[in-house]
C-alpha cells in the first residue's frame, strides 16, 4: 500500500479532536507509519502537537496558507504528495471542500463521510458509510491501487487514549499555489446570549418541540436542573428563528462537551451529532426507530411534550 497521510485540522495551535481520530482510523487498515500534514501559517505549535499523535509530520508553513482556501491547500498538497497516496481528512466543512477535487487531481478513489473502517485486504479497503440520515449503513469497498482520498466523520471513530507517537517534523516547501479563488475576509459570528460550550448539562431541543411556545418547557427543565444547565438546539430551531444561532449544536453550529446531553425530539443527524464530543447522551424521542437511539447512551421512547414537564415537576419535588 502507498504512503498514508492524515491532513489534520487545527486552530490557533490547537489540534482539532479529529486529528487523533484520523490517527486511530489509519491504524484500522495499516500498520505502516502514517504522516500527518499540518498546513497553515505559523503552525509550529500545531505541528508539535501532531507529532505526539503521528510518527511523522509534514509542516506546510506559508503565508499563502494562512486562510482555509481549499484551492490553495490542494495545490500545496499536489506539489508534495507522492503518486498513489492515500489521504485521510475530517469530513468537516473544509474537508468537504478540499477532498473531492484532491481525489480528481490525484486520480485516486474518493470516499466521503466514512463512519467506520473494517480493514484492508491488500489495496482493497472496506469502510462503512450511512445513508438516509443514518437509518441505513452501507458497506463500501474501495480500490486504493491508484491512491484514495477518504473523509472521516468527526466523532465516528474513537481516538486512542494516551497515544504518544514522538514523531519527527519535516518542513515542506508549498511550491506554486497560485489560485483563482481569493481570500476576502474572516467574519466572526455575532456574540450570543449564552456560551453552551461551557455548560455541564444541555437540554437540547429539536424539531420535535413542535412550536416556539413549547421552548419555554426546555428552559424550565434547565432551571430545575440548576445553574450548570443551559438550553441548546438543533439547526431547524435556529432556522425557524425560535432560538439564537449561538445555541445551535452541530457541524455548522457549536461543538459541545457537556457531562450530560439531553436530546429532546432530535432525530440524530450526523450534522447534529458531530457537534457533541463526549458526555452521556440521553435521547427522548417518540419514534422508536429514530437514528439517535443508535448512538445515545440512554434512549427513552416518549412524547417530549409530556416527558419534559413531568421531569421538571419531579426535579422540583427533590
Ligand atoms: C451543511 C449542513 C449543515 C448542517 N448543520 C447542522 C448543525 O450544525 N446542527 C444541526 O442540528 N443540524 C444541522 N444540519 C441539519 C441536519 O441535517 C438535520 O436536518 C437536523 O439536525 C435535524 O434536526 P432535528 O433532529 O431537530 O429534526 P428532525 O430530523 O425533523 O427530527 C425531529 C425528531 O423529533 C421526533 N419527534 C417529533 N415530535 C416529537 C415529540 N412530540 N416527542 C418526541 N419526539 C418527537 C421525531 O421522531 C424526530 O426524530 C445541517 C445540514 C446541512 C446540509
From TrEMBL:
Using the record's annotation, list all stretches that form the Electron transfer flavoprotein alpha/beta-subunit N-terminal domain: 4-186
Against SUPFAM superfamilies, the record matches this protein to: Adenine nucleotide alpha hydrolases-like, DHS-like NAD/FAD-binding domain
* Keyword set, alphabetical order: Electron transport, Transport
Q: Which InterPro entries match?
A: DHS-like_NAD/FAD-binding_dom, ETF_a/b_N, ETF_a/FixB, ETF_asu_C, Rossmann-like_a/b/a_fold
Source domain of life:
Bacteria
One Pfam family named in its UniProt record? ETF_alpha
Q: Which family does it belong to?
A: Belongs to the ETF alpha-subunit/FixB family.
What is the recorded name of this protein? Electron transfer flavoprotein subunit alpha/FixB family protein
Which organism's genome codes for this protein? Desulfobotulus pelophilus
Q: What is the lineage of its organism?
A: Bacteria, Pseudomonadati, Thermodesulfobacteriota, Desulfobacteria, Desulfobacterales
